[in-house]
Structure formats: structure tokens, C-alpha cells
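Q: Sequence in, structure out?
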Amino acid sequence: MLTPIKSDLDYNNYMKINLLKILLIFVLCFSQSVSASQVLPKDIIKHTVIINAPTTGEVGKTYFYCRNGNKCSTEQVAREYYKNKGYSVMRAEYAFWKGMFILTFLDELYPANHYTSYGKTGIFHDMELYKEQQEDLIKKGAHIKNTDLKEFINLQIKKHEAGAYIRDLDEWELESYKNPTEYFKSSIVQEFLTRIDNKTFYKVVNRILQDRKNNTVGTPDYIVWNKKELIFVEVKREKEKLSEDQITWAEFLIQNKISYNVIRVVRQY
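A: Exactly. Output:
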């Protein structure tokens, strides 16, 4: 039942309250629409590529159709896009670069006389150890600028396999391989190690070295390459946001003249 309005004063108050309600709803709707969009740095926008794909009407990993007619995920659309252009495509996010970093500095961060405790301690994030070993770490960085990367990483894998368990190399499944170490021995990673130039590899692992706790996070989803170029690739849907860590990595790569793309998979109308 509506409450009767007894006077002009009551009527005015009634109208003010309703007007305030309308304004509040408008502000909330506007703020939500603003928060739904993301303003990215111009250099990242410049390196954004749009891919159109039909949608299935479903949600999750079967949201799009690939060109072969199969239902597929956003990332599968991006993989297909590059493969159809003749690129090799390799998964290369967090676990990949963390593993590559550990193998690179295996001798310095995981000396054999301490090997038995690595699965249980937080040695990877121990920045005090970084200070103690700084000179050796800098020497290793200089070494990988000029070495045969494929030969070097494979030698490091053999050292690790002859040693003890390291959680970040032995536990996490990666691209259907039981752990990163097994993935690193795969043909696609071996091809990558012959394709990436030493300076680019060094720049990536050296950035992680500066802050091992935070700088492993946000590395792009894929690395793709052909005979002419090698590109770091982040994959997103049309309105999906990049995290702050992903933005930081994107700007680092662009500023260091390392090829980088954001692939936006957009609904095809």
C-alpha cells in the first residue's frame, strides 16, 4: 500500500528521495561500465592484433570455433592463427621461464652440497642468497650471452637430473608433460633454444634475477617464431584485462625491442 502524501513538504521530500535513488543507480551503473574497460599504455595498444572468430554460444573453453570447425578456447584460436601463418608455437608463461631461470643459474643458486633441502625451502625467493652470490650470478649472465643456448640448457638439465629434487623443475605439469624438465626436452623447446638469440634470452632471465619473487609472474602465454621473427604473445578475449604484471612485462619487452603482441580474440558477427 502506498503511503499517502499529506502535504507539499512531504511531496517535495518524496521527490528528492526518489531523485537521489535514480542518481545513485546511474552512478553505480556508470562506475561499473568504467571499471569494465581498461586503459592500456599506447605502446601496448600499438602492439595489439585483433582476431575474429565465430562463437559457439557456450561458455568457458568451448566459447569459439576454430577454422577447422572444432569448438575451441581463446588460446586455441590464437595458436591456430599463428600456425596457419607458418609459425612454430610454444607455451612459455610462468612455469616455463621460472624453470629456464633455475636451469640457467642452477650452479649458483642450487650448489650440490645443499641439494637435499631444495624441495622444502624457499631458496628460489631468497634474495639474501642473491646478494651473497651476486658476483657469480653476474658472471653466469655474461656467460649465457655468448654460449650455445641449446647445448648449455641441456647440460644444465643433465646436472639437475643427476642431482636432487627441485620442486619448480620436478613437480608441476606443463603442456601435458609431467614436469617442466620433461617439457624442456621436447622438440618444440629444443627448437626454441636454437631460435632465440642470446641477448633476448639474457634480458628475460636477468629481469627475473632482479626480483625472483615477482618477476616470474606475468610473462606472456606463448612464444611464436618463423625464419624472420620471434614474438612473445599474450592472449586475451576482447574485453579481458591484462594484469599489472602482464602490463609490466609487455612494456619491458617493447622497451627492449623484443617483439611482442597482445592477441585479442573477438566475436565474429
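The longest helix spans residues 8-36.
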